[in-house]
Amino acid sequence: MSETPKGFDTLAVHAGAQPDPTTGARATPIYQTTSFVFDDVDHAASLFGLQAFGNIYTRITNPTTDVLEKRVAALEGGTAALAVASGHSAQLLAFHTLMSPGCNIVASKRLYGGSINQLSHSFKNFGWEVKWAENLDSGSFKKAIDENTRAVFIESLANPGGIVMDIEAIAQVAHEAGVPLIVDNTMATPYLCKPINHGADIVLHSLTKFMGGHGNSMGGAIVDAGSFDWAASGNYPMLTEPRPEYNGIVLNDTFGGMAFAICCRVLGLRDLGPAISPNNAFMLLTGIETLALRMQRHSDNALKVAEFLQGHSAVEWVSYAGLPNDPFNNLKQKYCPKGAGAVFTFGLKGGYDAGINLVKNLELFSHLANIGDTRSLIIHPASTTHRQLTDEHKIAAGAGPDVVRISIGIEDPNDIIADLNQALSR
Ligand SMILES: *Cc1c(COP(=O)(O)O)cnc(C)c1O
């Protein structure tokens, strides 16, 4: 492609891909192979020594996955990306690169329920701790940071829906403390929000959701903004100390602005192993081609549904940043000008029982634990996704007993509203 910078919609279709050099195949082929033949012994040695880029084994790189990685990096405006088996494994590899026993992550309480579990329980086995920011403001993050903090972790559009985080203010607090800001951009996608433009150093994705968009394949991604100075603090030894297994090279010195993504690959993915299958990489890549069309339609539909719910007599409250009177609407205008996404929460006047009845009576909506499908989805977080949390943490995470969460699909908005209307009136 020529040097003129391409628009988002063009990158979503083309970035990272070219017709297959051997067959001319226009769609990216699924390279369903575990391993790759070396040109000769010197080539093999240079690949293993990180002196040349190339394919060795699909746990570490694969040509189909490579196109997905380049595309996600281009859409987020990062220097490089790593695609992995799931959103959770992207988190694991990112944290593994930054943390050692005794270190902590300062995190928002408004996170995906699975992320709250991962941070509070499984990470203890690594000797890693989590410190929760008391509220959503940057001051709460500042208060939680101490000398053992190695990163700040937030979602851009935050779970379980309807919240926009002040990325710039939180990035500033993180940078003043000498730590990177990690933003999980799963719910917004780079179509609605570009965290790197607002100071994020690392962007994470569950590609399983809106990026793939069809509810058919798991995947995750780590995007390196290339902006963070890993050497300044001396707190990130995986990046700044010589690696004996790679002839003593220092990843930060050798790979500069791509060092974090490369470190997650050649140390984290190499040793912990959550590789994405080439078939899933292909499915996700195909989904990303229509990302701009889908996200606009998801957001436009969600706004119509939120307006309908807000005017309904059975509804107590609606939390959707796209509504002009919503407390997060100012942040939405700044960070997600094109739309506030598909996922939001509302409460019914009838409380817990009314929520359960609504879920039962809907016909078009699917009752399941996912977001970001083409189909409209509904769930009652307190009894499902956020069930394992303590009551206190449930409420802090926005998943109290009366809360219903919906992920609005790309169906005809009149049909979505009609389904809600019939279920609410029963
Ligand atoms: C689903 C999700 C994850 C976890 O991703 P998986 O692909 O299910 O492992 C992380 N963060 C957010 C915001 C999610 O929605």
For the structure shown, list the relevant keywords.
single chain, 426 residues, alpha/beta, Aspartate Aminotransferase, domain 2, 5-stranded mixed sheet, 38% helix, PyrdxlP-dep_Trfase_small, pyridoxal phosphate binding, O-acetylhomoserine aminocarboxypropyltransferase activity, Cys_met_metab_PP, transferase
Describe this structure in words.
The chain has 426 residues and is of the alpha/beta class. It folds into 2 domains: 33-287, Type I PLP-dependent aspartate aminotransferase-like (Major domain) (Aspartate Aminotransferase, domain 2, 3-Layer(aba) Sandwich), CATH 3.40.640.10; 291-425, Aspartate Aminotransferase, domain 1. Helix content is 38%, strand content 14%. A 7-stranded mixed beta sheet has the order 1-9-8-7-4-2-3, sandwiched between helices. It has a 5-stranded mixed beta sheet with strand order 10-11-14-13-12. Strands 5-6 form a two-stranded antiparallel ribbon. Helix 1 (8-14) runs antiparallel to helix 3 (63-76). Bound molecules: pyridoxal-5'-phosphate (PLP). Pyridoxal-5'-phosphate is lined by residues 86-88, 112, 114-115, 155, 159, 184, 186-187, 206, 208-209, 218, 220, 371. Belongs to the trans-sulfuration enzymes family. The modification N6-(pyridoxal phosphate)lysine is found at residue 209. It comes from Pseudovibrio exalbescens. Its cofactor is pyridoxal 5'-phosphate.
